[in-house]
Automatic annotation (TrEMBL), chains A, B:
Signal peptide span: 1-22
Family (UniProt): Belongs to the APS1/VSP family.
Task of the protein: May function as somatic storage protein during early seedling development.
A GO molecular-function descriptor: acid phosphatase activity
Name of the protein in its database record: Acid phosphatase
InterPro entries membership: Acid_phosphat_B-like, Acid_phosphatase_pln, APS1/VSP, HAD-like_sf, HAD_sf
NCBIfam families: plant-AP
Stored Gene3D superfamilies: HAD superfamily/HAD-like (3.40.50.1000)
Pfam families, per the entry: Acid_phosphat_B
């Protein structure tokens, strides 16, 4: 009976303790947990600084943010953020009077815009490792990057509305075949033109290269209404589109 | 003894249940909780769409985001986000070679940049109510808006580094005295010039008005290195600064 009462007391204590913990009445001191909360707050602000271009140029994600970026990209938030970008893009597209002469244009970047390279970055620290061009080129050769689903829906809607679609990528001319193959594999088709870096474009900043290519389109008589890209260098410079749409990318930065 | 055993079993069950709940092994169905999680995810994405200018023009915050915006602004996140903007600004400022001729300029917006009107917006739904110009003007007349602490630190550092500070606000010329009084009350001083909307500027978009004023500074020989503002209309247009810094503001949008 005495043993039973002791057990009873122990269980009562355990029970109350569990309820208290579950309702956060008692906080268990844990450096790891506290630091994780701090990291989340910091990394959330860091990500905003990147997405608004306040951060400017950066080489790799802060080491304390690796877990955060992983959770962001493979969880609901990346998906949700991308979907609102597509929603905003479509909302604007609906205000454009498409003339029917084929000159109403929309530009898409490819990597982290139409396609997602998450399968690659998941194996390479989600941007916490220095960029390995050789390894990434091998991944590109596989032509198996899946579509970013929000962009796929937007792409199809814009096509239906009569926009002429240009794909403007930092990938090189020698990657034309695998890039086209990957786009088809992912479900994209009927783009007007796929523009890649020619040998004469090598060494140019992405901002300059993409601006020059946009200017060529403008000189051909295209009206560039929208431009979708995950890098500010996809969107800024000259011959800018009427409206630009910045897709999220907390993994890497391209000048 | 039987009663004691029943109690024992009950407590054992309760104990296990509590542990299970505390460790999220069992999810308690709760519409309110689920919807709150959905709202947080949506509102987080909505806020990003606003901060990146993807959303374009908007009138008031989505009604489902009122609680979210309140928690964001009065909690740690607004502070943390503002601090990283100040950090990014300072990091860039340190790369500028200040010539010592007084022509190296930095522009600050005032509302939600140097000063925070949170005491006002806390009483007006954090952006969920339509903008009430008369009520806001009454608040401005009080001249009691506190400094946004992150901007205060940046302001002082830039002054010490020798930058010439211009304050460029959408407030009107007739609010010059109360605005100066409020800035001094908040702890700012020694700005070069406070630029407000003159009667001839009324009716212009903020982007046009601010671009024209920046162009006047450029024509006076100033080199505008940095520009800090919570609205994209503070930053975009022509005669843009070398680098722009977007402070967070999920409460309102100015064209």
């Amino acid at each position: 009976m005495a043993a039973s009462q002791s057990l009873l007391s122990l269980l009562l204590l355990l029970s109350l303790l569990s309820v208290a913990i579950s309702q956060s009445l008692i906080r268990i001191p844990s450096d790891r947990k506290a630091s994780s909360v701090d990291d989340d707050l910091y990394c959330d602000s860091w990500r905003l600084s990147v997405e608004t271009n306040n951060a400017g140029s950066w080489i790799k994600i802060p080491s304390r943010c690796q877990r955060y970026v992983e959770q962001y990209t493979i969880g609901d938030r990346y998906l949700s953020d991308s979907e609102i970008v597509a929603f905003d893009s479509l909302t604007f597209a609906k205000t454009v009077k498409v003339a029917g002469d084929g000159k109403d244009a929309w530009i898409f970047d490819i990597d982290e815009t139409l396609l997602t390279n998450l399968p690659y970055y998941a194996l390479h620290g989600f941007g916490s490792e220095p960029f390995d061009e050789a390894a990434f080129d091998e991944w590109v050769e596989l032509a198996q990057a899946p579509a970013l689903s929000a962009s796929m829906n937007l792409y199809k809607e814009l096509k239906q509305m009569g926009f002429t679609i240009f794909l403007l990528t930092g990938r090189s001319e020698h990657q034309r075949n695998v890039t086209g193959k990957n786009l088809l594999f992912a479900g994209y088709n009927n783009w007007e033109r796929l523009i890649l870096r020619e040998p004469s474009d090598q060494g140019k900043s992405a901002t300059l290269y993409k601006s020059q290519k946009r200017l060529e389109l403008v000189n051909e008589g295209y009206r560039i209404h929208g431009n979708s890209g995950d890098q500010w260098s996809d969107l800024l410079g000259f011959a800018m589109s009427e409206r630009s749409f910045k897709l999220p990318n907390p993994m890497y930065y391209i000048q």
